[in-house]
């Protein structure tokens, strides 16, 4: 596998003029120097490699999670990214995350502009080779502007590199329609010229990525309310169908269910992570040499969505340092809303839909390397039945050997993790003997919970009567119950555990399952074609069904509308950094909708919070900050 993100001395020349979007103090290298650097295939390919750099800082990282997934109907946080999660006073022009997003995407735009500008000067390329290579820059520029326009609204549209255009001291905003015109033009070029496959070079974009993101861009554009919005919905449907109807051509496929496992479960199996036919566009992680822009500092997503295994969980036998399956507990922060837990997902013990179980962990095990005894103190504190005093929670910690790595043909990591021994129900009570904490999304009666030999926290404990997360003020045990909730499972396969904190799996940015959802929504937005929408939705729903229960997942076309698709997107994509854009497209970023679905958000202002503040660092660097504006912040 080629390391496509390796940095070279030639590409380093470009760093001098990189951030013209946020500084007036730069001195750009001469275009003569750049022509020398980028007119050879080696130098040009190094520049193309740099176009991918920024995505490593948004996917699987808190900057991207906050901006793309938080502040929606799905998640709550008291401690992480409060500007994004709660729309509080930290959402202002000085917020550092916004600077990271702004600078990073504009840096990518500048790399791409440079590559596009010099492409015709590269020697030893045929026309086809040149177009195939520069198409990667067109794709990444379109992808970057898609984020910029959704995060910040009508921003500055730049199509020339700063080394050519010079510093822009008086930037002028383009309209959102003009920006979308450029996004669509760039992605259409990528669709036309990218190869069908990039071979063994995981992470490089091919035609399937371009078609997928183009379909996404067409659909997202419908939020602008243009007179021809239905035309863009039609284009989104046609573009999505190109992928769906020609999966073998584009080397992509949905996993299908078999007699033991749903297709959705296979999607998240670690053994399938590095060669996943459903991943259309991905952040490829080099887990051997750590030749990533940030080395081995990967896989933090699961850590941010983790319940308290360090204090509350530890009272019942969990141990943070032996819980590699779950990751570290000290970065806990994002937890599900009641709406996600009990309305998006069906709150029953044995659902036909496997997606809740594949999205979340609900069982946390004794991982102290010895049996754990329930004390009188615990029984009294949590209102347990007195018969549980002295009851043993079995140790589950053991050395875990994933076996043969089918990607490299060798034995992979050895990790110490909970959940490998004593995973039995010897006392036949319906629960594994090693469970310390259980956080289901369905309610269990108080009498039954009192008899369970572990801590059980269900929605009746997690949320107050208004649907907000409990607190010390609203519940006797609120201080403890507010730290107990299902944790993110999607990015936690033991197959790619590097250590207790880091996970080395690839991260899907766009996958084929979402393209089916794009097609379903586009069919409704184009001409309310419920039959077509139901067809695509049922393909997705049935592959997520428990074996033998696909019929329970089938939806009738009469029951399909846009709100159903939005809920289906939550079931399919929760935690995959899509939700804020979904709510924006649906017009659901409103005070009323968030009050209904996420009542913990109390300061949302629909007049300004549908876009982010312009970073102060940019405003300070330009000569017309008052004219440019800060998006109302």
CATH classification, class level of the domain at 1-175 and 605-633: Mainly Alpha
Helical amount among residues, as a percent range?
25-40%
Spatial order of strands in the largest sheet: 5-12-13
Per CATH, what is the topology of the domain at 1-175 and 605-633? Serine Threonine Protein Phosphatase 5, Tetratricopeptide repeat
CATH architectural category of the domain at 1-175 and 605-633:
Alpha Horseshoe
Count of beta strands:
15
Determine the strand fraction and express it as a percent band: 5-15%
**N-to-C CA distance:** 46 Å
Q: Rounded to an integer, what's the Rg over CA atoms?
A: 25 Å
What is the subunit organization of this protein? single chain
What does this protein look like?
This protein has 633 residues and is mostly helical. Among the domains are: 1-175 and 605-633, Serine Threonine Protein Phosphatase 5, Tetratricopeptide repeat (Alpha Horseshoe); 305-496, no CATH class. The protein is 40% helix and 6% strand. It contains 28 helices and 15 strands. α11 (229-245) packs antiparallel against α21 (512-527).
Helix-strand blueprint:
Blueprint: H1 9-12, H2 31-38, H3 41-50, H4 62-69, E1 75-76, H5 82-85, H6 96-118, H7 127-152, H8 162-165, H9 176-193, H10 207-221, H11 229-245, H12 247-250, H13 263-267, E2 279-283, H14 301-304, E3 335-336, H15 338-344, H16 355-359, E4 360-361, E5 363-365, E6 372-373, H17 376-381, E7 392-393, E8 398-400, E9 404-405, E10 410-411, E11 415-417, E12 435-438, H18 446-451, E13 455-456, H19 459-462, H20 478-481, E14 487-488, E15 507-511, H21 512-527, H22 530-543, H23 550-553, H24 562-573, H25 579-586, H26 591-597, H27 616-621, H28 625-628
Parallel strand pairs: 12-13
Antiparallel strand pairs: 1-3, 2-15, 4-14, 5-12, 6-7, 8-11, 9-10
